[in-house]
Design brief:
Distance between the termini: 29 Å
Number of domains: 1
Largest sheet: none
Oligomer: single chain
Number of strands: 0
Order of helices and strands: HHHHHHHH
Number of helices: 8
């Protein structure tokens, strides 16, 4: 079916909206129910996180498989947004899709690192070739790798989202307020995360919470609008 077909666009929009909401819910549930204490992105204490990871084989495996589910949902969202927006800017839509998928793959590395520590904690072979200090160091390296891959993927995915939101803003397929806020919030996340590596003051918890909440509002607003209303078949003029 042609991507300009109104019924196709509406079905795709609904799928994207509910998939994005499911992805957000999955992330929150994973953080609260599974990843507490074993996710370096939720704690600044690398040593404590590494120690907890070595005692949490089952939760690490669950975290990894949930990350795979999140990857699948994220792929559905990215491809769906491309299908909706390609006729309003094929180059930007294609670029945003590729960048978004690259970010999803980078984020999926967190699942690999979680499984690595699960194996390190459970496989008898590691007990015979490493001592406790060495296993702790290896777990800490996996946690650090998870941290860097997550933050790089967050920057890249935010840039991709800014591209998608800009196309929504230009096309008028969703309300201007949602689209404009999405562009602002997405760029804010990308800029602040990069800048705080060079300006430590930007790493304050209050600043982090502020831009993450702004981004969450943008994503939830878009998800609810697409899930409930879909897109405007006849875009409103800007």
């Amino acid at each position: 079916m042609h991507s300009d077909d109104p019924q196709f666009l509406q079905r795709t929009a609904h799928t994207v909206g509910w998939s994005q909401l499911a992805l957000i819910a999955l992330g929150i549930a994973t953080s609260v129910l599974v990843a507490k204490g074993i996710d370096i992105n939720l704690s600044a204490d690398v040593e404590a996180t590494a120690r907890n990871m070595l005692d949490a084989e089952t939760r690490l495996r669950a975290k990894a498989y949930l990350a795979c589910l999140g990857f699948a949902l994220g792929t559905v969202v990215s491809v769906g947004l491309f299908l909706i927006l390609q006729s309003h800017g094929r180059l930007l839509a294609s670029t945003s899709l590729v960048v978004s998928l690259a970010a999803a793959v980078l984020s999926l590395l967190g699942a690999v690192f979680a499984m690595n520590v699960a194996e390190l904690a459970s496989a008898p072979a590691y007990a015979s070739i490493t001592d406790d200090a060495q296993r702790l160091m290896l777990a800490g390296m996996q946690a650090t790798s998870d941290y860097t891959s997550f933050h790089l993927s967050l920057v890249i995915s935010s840039v991709a989202n800014a591209g998608f939101f800009y196309l929504f803003l230009r096309s008028g397929l969703i309300p201007m307020l949602i689209a404009a806020w999405g562009v602002f919030a997405s760029l804010l996340v990308a800029v602040v995360i990069v800048a705080r590596d060079f300006i430590p003051a930007l790493g304050q918890p209050g600043i982090t919470i502020s831009f993450m909440v702004a981004n969450l509002i943008a994503l939830i607003s878009l998800s609810l609008y697409l899930g409930i209303k879909g897109v405007r078949v006849e875009p409103a003029p800007l």
